[in-house]
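Standup notes
- DV: blocked on the single-chain target, sequence here:
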Amino acid sequence: MTNTGKNMLEIRWHGRGGQGAVTASKVLAESAMALGKQIQAFPEYGSERQGAPIKAFTRISDQRIMHHSQVTSPDVVIVLDPSLLEAIDVTEGLKDDGILIINTPATPKNIRAQMKLQGRKLFTIDATGISLRHLGKAIPNTPMIGALLGVTKMLPPESVAADFKEKFKGKFKSEILEGNVLCIMDASKEVKSE
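- DV (later): unblocked, structure below
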């Protein structure tokens, strides 16, 4: 598990209501648990309505997790909606050597300039484009899971995709399951760095 010298990876997700940030946080945590990790996943809602900014948090560790508060100093920040870059400070509390993964077709270099971002590791992924390609809908959550896995190498994308397929086989049609598996796998390979 890639992290900053501790055995726990703390992740903060930023999205808008309906984009699946809370679901992504839970799916990732449950897959990590299935692979023997200790986990936490929980949301923070503001005004609970479609399109409102929301946060979700995930902790993944090899050992028991003793923290039971918000993630205030994340190792990784994931942004599902690039319009949030203008609305809130998504880097708040992000460690100096932290990782920022943004759903956008823009290059990391262009986003770094737009945000006037100093330091930190910046990655971009066209998660919306990937979800449109495989699901026919703009649902960036599973591609963002794949991007995270591609960047951090914390869990094998194949194992998370297989766990997703197993967990949701009774809930989704086979083409939706396969589309989400492809979203995870493609995003793990297509994520861009500077």
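- Follow-up: The chain has one domain: 8-193.
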